């Protein structure tokens, strides 16, 4: 997306911080525990192993694996109604934009929604995984895990991300994130994608909507800045692309109608693609009440 103000080097959180406290309050105001939990224990189906992470329940340590391979592995169990939550956050450069009337950057708003959804899932007994598309150096995704410690891990990862990378130029940024997600998300998983959708590669729509197969539910949430949703500029403007580096000088009144029409076409294309695959699509702006946004997402996966 194009912008007219200097690009910040670090994420502009604005009024969305502190993330941990804001996310807790939003979760309480949404529908805490609204979807079914994945029940775990010895009386349900064995679901494989994963690496031990500090804070995991020691009852499910696989001692035999420790003796044979000198690795700490945790046994996982799940039922057919497993409702693991997988959150995908677009961390590419365009998500770092904050317009003059916005309370914070798009990535900050997406992080707040992601943290609140994590809180709701954890309180409901469901495991959560976090995947980033792009992001500045050092960004780290988190494997699916349960327990209250996972909320702290997710918040820490979200607080540490800065917008960076160009998924349109480097298609591997998107492909690598989605490939790992498709392999790990089992039947019954809920996948929530938070992105502005503005600078993703052409095949992103097909790749993301395809995640809805194999019994998974996918919700794509387009996060826009108020500037992007309404194009309120007047007169001659100089716009710079946050991804790709292009600069355009134009008259705002001449391009506003074409821009808004293109935005609506993008909205309609994504909505149709998600519907065909049994997914859900919604749009929000960073001035929306995050409690309402989170509640709408929860309602779409019930």
Please describe what this structure looks like:
The protein has 302 residues and is an alpha/beta fold. It folds into two domains: 2-37 and 80-301, Rossmann fold (3-Layer(aba) Sandwich), CATH 3.40.50; 40-78, no CATH class. The protein is 36% helix and 21% strand. The chain is built from nine helices and eleven strands. A six-stranded mixed sheet has the order 6-5-4-7-8-11, sandwiched between helices. It has a three-stranded antiparallel sheet with strand order 1-9-10. Strands 2-3 form a two-stranded antiparallel ribbon. Helix 3 (106-123) links the parallel strand 4 (85-90) and strand 5.
Low-confidence stretches: 1-8, 35-43
Instruction: Indicate the multimeric state.
Output: single chain
Q: For the residues shown, what is the average pLDDT? A: 83
Tell me, what's the shape? globular
CATH architecture descriptor of the largest domain: 3-Layer(aba) Sandwich
Largest sheet: 6 strands, mixed
Which class best fits the helix and strand makeup? Answer: alpha/beta
Annotation field: number of helices:
9
Give a summary of the structure in a few sentences.
The chain has helices at residues 19-29, 63-69, 106-123, 148-159, 172-184, 204-209, 226-230, 252-276, 290-301, and strands at 2-3, 45-51, 73-78, 85-90, 128-133, 142-145, 190-195, 217-224, 236-241, 247-251, 280-285.
């Amino acid at each position: 997306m194009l912008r007219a103000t200097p690009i910040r080097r670090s994420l502009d959180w604005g009024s969305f911080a502190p993330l941990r406290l804001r996310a807790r309050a939003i979760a309480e105001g949404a529908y805490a525990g609204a979807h079914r939990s994945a029940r775990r224990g010895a009386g349900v189906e064995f679901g494989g192993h994963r690496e031990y992470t500090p804070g995991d329940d020691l009852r499910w340590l696989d001692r035999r694996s420790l003796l044979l391979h000198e690795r700490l592995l945790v046994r996982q169990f799940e039922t057919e109604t497993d409702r693991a939550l997988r959150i995908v956050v677009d961390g590419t450069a365009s998500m770092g934009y904050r317009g003059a009337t916005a309370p914070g950057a798009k990535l900050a708003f997406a992080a707040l929604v992601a943290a609140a959804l994590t809180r709701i899932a954890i309180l409901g007994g469901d495991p959560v995984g976090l995947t980033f598309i792009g992001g500045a150096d050092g960004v780290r995704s988190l494997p699916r895990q349960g327990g209250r410690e996972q909320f702290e891990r997710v918040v820490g990862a979200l607080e540490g991300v800065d917008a960076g990378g160009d998924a349109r130029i480097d298609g591997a940024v998107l492909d690598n994130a989605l490939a790992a997600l498709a392999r790990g998300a089992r039947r019954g998983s809920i996948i929530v994608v938070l992105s502005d959708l503005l600078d993703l590669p052409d095949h992103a729509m097909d790749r993301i909507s395809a995640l809805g197969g194999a019994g998974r539910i996918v919700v794509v949430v387009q996060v826009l800045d108020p500037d992007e949703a309404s194009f309120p500029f007047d007169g001659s403007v100089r716009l710079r692309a946050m991804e790709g580096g292009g600069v355009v000088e134009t008259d705002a009144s001449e391009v506003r109608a074409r821009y808004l029409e293109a935005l609506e076409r993008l909205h309609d294309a994504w909505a149709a693609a998600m519907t065909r695959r049994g997914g859900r699509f919604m749009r929000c702006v960073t001035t929306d009440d995050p409690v309402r946004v989170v509640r709408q997402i929860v309602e779409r996966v019930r």
